[in-house]
Model the fold of this input.
Amino acid sequence: MWLWFSKLGSPRWFYELSSKWLPWLYAAMIVLMAIGLFWALLIVPEDYQQGQTIRIMYVHVPVASISLACFPLMAVAGTITLVWKMKLADMVAKSVAPIGAWFTGLALASGAIWGDQIWGTWWAWDARLTSLLIQFFLFIGVIALRSAIESQDAAAKACAVLAIVGAINVPIIKYSVEWWNTLHQPASSFSIDPVAPNPPEVWVPLLIMISAVYVFFVIALILRTRNEILQRERRSQWVIDLVSKEKSV
Amino acid sequence: MKPHRRKKLGIIIFIAAGLSTAIGLSLYALSNNIDLFFTPTQVAAGEVTPGQRIRVGGMVKEGSVEHSQEILEVSFVTTDYNHDVLIKYAGILPDLFREGQGIVAEGAMSADGTFVASRVLAKHDENYMSVEVKAALDAAGTTPGMPQGVLQ
Done:
């Protein structure tokens, strides 16, 4: 277990292993995305209240769910950086921040488009929307903090602390719709009964879209992390060998 | 785990737990300000003063919507099934506005106890289904109760 843990912490090992994963991930993303989009945009029946607008859900829910996963991931990576000083953890933490900012921005934007249609406003200062906006600023803050500190180690530590502190916001976002009264509706519970609210014809395509966007997220994270590995390890022999091999091809 | 790492992890967990408690308590203290709207029960309990700009949220009571014949004015009753608030509004209602629907109205209480709204927003609940499924549920009389979605 510890051997595996320390091996995973080796950037070179991760770089080589992820080279093998990437083609499979690309294939999975294309298949899932094609099925999910086709199903969600063309086959899903109109909602009894919202009509065609319901299709926004198939974009909004996946991006919002990933935006909520990014911060805990960054906090866990930050904790590993602070406690075990694993090199790879900080590379992942650095790579996930801009992706998280983008997904949070997309969740806010798709939610605004949906809200404009259904609520009659694109923004309300309710607990769910406001706490998600705070998460967006926290991501921007982490990115800014990292670029403001010159020393790589000091930047890693500062960002790890901010990530751990900021992660407290995640349960607040999640449960805001239950703790306070909000314009945003609470989370749905899915039913396996075809004649019930939220039947499989509604959530199966949603599940496919969520998996597709998750695979996209994993690909984006791996690519950014690989880029970070090459930059930080550019003086090590294996990267020099790799680059000269690429050049000769 | 090496002692110095265990100590570090302990410090991180301690600080995170302390901060969570502090933030949790302040959010709990502020919960009246975080709530987006007052419920009709809170209005009936006298929690709002006339003229103060607030939001009121509840369900549109069945059979209470009255459109004015001459001008773009509508009045309706919003309810949380304990108390009612009469709302007057001159403006365009959202598409989803209908009887039995959850709404949030922005405006102020007037001295005579009606709520004069300057904006009306529609809420929807967390139940999604097709027109056919809805019709089948209605026919079977097992449509889930709408209220809990809007009131909590």
User: Anything to note?
Assistant: The interface with chain B takes residues 45-50, 54, 57, 79, 82-84, 117-121, 124-127, 164-165, 167-168, 172, 178-183, 185-189, 194-199, 201-202 of chain A (CB under 8 Å).
